[in-house]
């Protein structure tokens, strides 16, 4: 097994080199160091793909004790031929297509194979001949090497089978090792394309991707995004969506935007708080006293009382907040690295205007494709649990909030002192995620107990910042990444209580204090923040500046099979399968359903095109 595994790793290493050589126009300087980094980080997915090839030979190794050797040899010979041919086709096609598409091979070419004439017409004859020769050579070499290894090292059929049981522990160990390699390790995150992203240069991230993995991964996650959501024809959709589109571009007059900052170039800390629903927060109506530190911060900050999450998972909330891109009901755009490249983002906008950009997460940053998304959208420095000592990895998800927030305070202040540029620092917390394993006990309910724990950690964090001179130049934004079903009888998927979240601005750079009852979506954070700084947000068509008097606010959210729409007249949730209203409060229900359908269809058509 080890021989096949190592042969395939070497095969993929050669392809990394060929990819860099073939795309020499994108070479960075110095190339040698970058080549080593590409191979090192690419090893993660190369290892996974190599491991996927092992179960069949492993089973054959077991069957050698009960089946004729000749039959096993024939079977494996065919298997090696299939592997060699498929890998040669995948890697050669990827090598040719990257120059046109600038992303590694995924399921996209399969669409064009439905119209082979058009696909062939777009390439010249020499390219076809060269590709065919390349595939033939690559396939022949791999098949020959694998078969040569097989003939030399596969054990002969034993003559005395009664002693074969002594090998059983070794086989169990080998099976377990293969499983771990296929999974991509023992961490919470399973293998995904984003785990090889390592550079701010997108080409180097692409060079580290194994295209065989990329293709299979995209096939596994690919969907007909608009299936079941085509409510209108093109003309009717445009008419119904027109009002929504106008709100994102309505703040054309800066004099009609309420200014809430002391100046327009503060340092910014954006805290994405795991599962921070509005329901446990004292300042938003909870009487259990779970969040005294947040409640205290509310008294000196600006609380957005009617903010709604876009969906129900972190990856969707992250894209909604950081890229102002709404969540989709049955998928997450973060899982599609090629699509993420086209997303706008707060980080990219601030970076273009002189900010340094940092991301901190106490867990595995590769989870759900977050690493590739963050790298593609402008974060130049990313810190995750790998930067912390093992002694600090005290929870299932990684490093508890108490430790990461302490790290954030120290690192943020150091970045402010060292850099002559303003700082944009984002952090995602994790302690209030199931299973809520926190080191303190303040409430019998595990979720509420974790909220209280993170609140206390936030209190210490804010105290550290306030003791520094940087506090007066800091804008601190706290926002939940999504809601949580608490209380269970009210915060159900069809009711607004499930989606209402904490959203608070604070810090010495905040001039306006108080509470704002304007309806707000996670996607509105970007335009509202950038407008306060005087930066353009026209590349964010789903984001509204809710501090502008020109904007009529609304919020949209979706989870599998349903969507909700909130406006000044009320709130409605609608089931896309049963095609009926699940919850309604207020007047003009039909208008909200119409706008919600238009919003969702337009969004999914947008996702399909990216």
Automatic annotation (TrEMBL):
Transmembrane segments: 7-27, 47-67, 79-103, 123-143, 164-182
Active site annotation, chain numbering: 314
Subcellular location: Cell membrane
Topology of this chain in the membrane: Multi-pass membrane protein
Sulfatase N-terminal domain: residues covered: 266-534
CDD domains referenced in this protein's UniProt entry, alphabetically: LTA_synthase (cd16015)
InterPro entries from the UniProt entry: Alkaline_phosphatase_core_sf, LtaS-like, OpgB/LTA_synthase_biosynth, Sulfatase_N
Gene3D superfamilies for the chain: 3.30.1120.80, Alkaline Phosphatase, subunit A
Cellular component annotations (GO), alphabetically ordered: plasma membrane
Binding locations of substrate: 433
A GO term, aspect molecular function: metal ion binding
Annotated positions binding Mn(2+): 274, 314, 481-482
Keywords of this entry: Cell membrane, Manganese, Membrane, Metal-binding, Transmembrane, Transmembrane helix
Name by which UniProt lists this protein: Sulfatase N-terminal domain-containing protein
């Amino acid at each position: 097994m080890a021989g096949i595994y190592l042969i395939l790793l070497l095969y993929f290493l050669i392809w990394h080199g060929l990819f860099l050589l073939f795309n020499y126009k994108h070479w960075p300087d110095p190339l040698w160091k970058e080549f080593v980094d590409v191979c090192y980080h690419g090893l993660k997915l190369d290892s996974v793909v190599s491991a996927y090839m092992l179960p069949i030979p492993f089973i054959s190794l077991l069957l050698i004790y009960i089946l004729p050797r000749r039959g096993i040899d024939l079977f494996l010979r065919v298997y090696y031929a299939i592997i060699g041919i498929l890998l040669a086709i995948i890697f050669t096609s990827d090598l040719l297509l990257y120059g046109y598409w600038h992303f590694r091979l995924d399921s996209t070419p399969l669409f064009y194979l439905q119209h082979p004439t058009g696909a062939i017409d777009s390439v010249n004859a020499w390219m076809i001949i060269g590709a065919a020769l390349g595939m033939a050579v690559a396939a022949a070499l791999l098949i020959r090497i694998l078969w040569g290894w097989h003939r030399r090292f596969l054990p002969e059929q034993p003559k005395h089978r009664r002693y074969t049981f002594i090998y059983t522990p070794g086989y169990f160990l080998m099976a377990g090792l293969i499983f771990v390699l296929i999974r991509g390790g023992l961490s919470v995150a399973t293998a995904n394309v984003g785990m090889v992203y390592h550079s701010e240069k997108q080409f180097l991230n692409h060079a580290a991707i194994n295209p065989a993995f990329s293709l299979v991964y995209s096939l596994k996650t690919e969907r007909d995004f608009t299936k079941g959501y085509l409510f209108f024809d093109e003309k009717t959709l445009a008419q119904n969506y027109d009002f929504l589109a106008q709100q994102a571009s309505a703040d054309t007059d800066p004099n009609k935007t309420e200014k809430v900052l002391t100046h327009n170039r503060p340092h910014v800390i954006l805290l994405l708080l795991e599962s921070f629903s509005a329901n446990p927060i004292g300042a938003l109506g909870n009487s259990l006293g779970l969040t005294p530190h947040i409640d205290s911060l509310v008294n000196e900050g600006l609380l957005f009382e009617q903010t709604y999450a876009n969906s129900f998972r972190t990856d969707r909330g992250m894209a909604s907040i950081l890229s102002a891109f709404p969540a989709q009901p049955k998928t997450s755009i973060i899982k599609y690295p090629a699509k993420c490249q086209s997303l706008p983002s707060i980080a990219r906008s601030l970076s273009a205007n002189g900010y340094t950009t940092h991301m901190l997460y106490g867990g595995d940053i590769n989870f759900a494709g977050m690493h590739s998304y963050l790298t593609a959208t402008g974060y130049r420095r990313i810190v995750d649990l790998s930067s912390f000592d093992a002694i600090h990895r005290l929870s299932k998800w990684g490093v508890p909030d108490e430790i990461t927030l302490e790290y954030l305070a120290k690192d943020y202040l150091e970045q402010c002192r060292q850099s002559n540029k303003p700082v944009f620092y984002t952090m995602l917390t994790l302690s209030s995620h199931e299973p809520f394993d926190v080191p303190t006990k303040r409430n019998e309910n595990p979720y509420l107990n974790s909220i209280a724990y993170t609140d206390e950690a936030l209190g210490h964090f804010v105290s550290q910042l306030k003791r520094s001179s940087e506090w007066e130049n800091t804008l601190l934004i706290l926002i939940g990444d999504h809601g949580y079903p608490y209380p269970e009888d009210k915060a159900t998927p069809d009711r607004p209580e499930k989606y209402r979240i904490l959203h608070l601005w604070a810090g010495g750079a905040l001039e306006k204090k108080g509470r704002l009852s304007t309806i707000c979506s996670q996607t509105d954070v970007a335009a509202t923040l950038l407008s306060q700084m005087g930066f353009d947000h026209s590349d964010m068509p789903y984001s509204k500046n809710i501090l502008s008097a020109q904007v009529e606010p609304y919020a949209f959210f979706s989870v599998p099979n349903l969507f909700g729409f909130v406006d000044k007249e009320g709130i409605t949730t609608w089931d896309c399968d049963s095609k009926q209203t699940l919850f309604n409060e207020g007047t003009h229900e039909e208008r909200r359903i119409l706008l919600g359908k238009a919003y969702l269809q337009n969004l999914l058509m947008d996702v399909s095109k990216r």
